[in-house]
Amino acid sequence: MIEIRRLYPRDWEPTEPLVAYNKADGRVVVASEMRRGNSSYYDRYGYQGSQDIVCIDCLEAGRDVPVSLVEAAKKCIHFRHKAGEAPDGLGRHGETAEHLHGKQLMMDWASDQRHIMSWSIDDEVWVPGARLRSDVKAELFGGRRLAFEVQRKPVEWKDWERRHGGYERAGVRDVWLWSPDVPHLVLDLPLTSVVLDMEHEEIGVMVASYSGTYRNPTAEHRIITPTHYAAAPLAEWGISASGSLVPPPEMAEYIGDKPEPRRVAQLNDHRNPPAKPPKQPWQPPASPSNQYWSAFRSGSGRSPGGHAPYIDPEREEQRKQEAIKEIMRRKR
User: Has residue 157 got a pLDDT over 80?
Assistant: First the structure.
């Protein structure tokens, strides 16, 4: 069943480390799910307990660094290193719970796809020769590699082009999944750039209202900014042998049948419209006599038959004499 949902703006921005790793049971733990007191999970394994909840980055670097749970009044619940023990820069320990959940959804979904080799699925994997790290990587039975990018923040057009081009040159098919609060019209392609609704566990196609019906902006001749997305359960989507997303049949009316190369060209034209010719500076119009004499002197003044206009020498001489007499009369 297709649901039409509204794209919504985000009014918050998580910036603190929200996930850690529990060595005791091998779980990735989320700070917002932790509670203190009554012999809770955190009490047993946290900083005041066995100290098995450690920083993921430090663990991958060969160090066991316990992290403590912080419940600040003006910040969301997060983990914190002991002073002097934090690594240089944030790696995976700075990953948000939302992003982690999105990656897990895609890994679980990919493992159920018949064209994907389940053993090839992994997260945070560097692409050889491309200097890119995909959120989730997988491989098709035909040998084609896939990269799934779970995006919850806007991406600049040039940055997306760089990353997309890097995947393309490395022979990797990249699929982009956007949070419903970061619609990006330039990247809106129905089978390679879609909405990932983690709350409802759905994939959606961005749509806009055209004459009372909802259609993907690139399905029509005129592009307008999307306001909604048409979503279907994640389990109803598939993936083809070439690596393209395969929507449920009911999604066809929202996507349209325009080929993807034409959609890409339309989006490029929308993003980079042709430059307008420079505006010419205003000039006062020339008088008819000046236009006539300038054209005549330059040799461009022609009669309708293509010849220069005939001028009677005697008539011209008479006009000059009359003009001289008029001037002398006025002087008197």
Answer: no
Asked which of 38-52, 76-90, 190-204 is least confident by mean pLDDT, the reply is 76-90
Whose tokens are 């919504």? That residue is: 8
Domain locations in the chain as residue ranges:
19-94, 97-271, 289-331
Residue 301 predicted with pLDDT over 50: no
Q: Are 216 and 256 in contact, with CB atoms under 8 Å apart?
A: yes
Q: Is the pLDDT of residue 111 over 70?
A: yes
Q: What's the CA gap between 80 and 93, in Å, rounded?
A: 10
The pLDDT of residue 93 is: 47
Phi, psi of 233 (to 5 degrees): -55, 140
Sign of the alpha-carbon torsion through 180, 181, 182, 185: positive
Backbone angles phi, psi at 207, to 5 degrees: -140, 160
State the Cα–Cα distance between residues 180 and 198, nearest whole angstrom.
Answer: 9
Q: Which two tokens stand for residue 85?
A: 């023990």
CA distances from 295 to 36, 181, 286, 288, 298 (A): 94, 64, 12, 11, 5
Q: What is the rounded distance in angstroms from the CA atom of residue 121 to the CA atom of residue 117?
A: 7
Asked whether the predicted pLDDT for residue 12 surpasses 50, the reply is: no
CB of 24 within 8 A of CB of 57?
A: no
pLDDT (0 to 100) of residue 309:
57
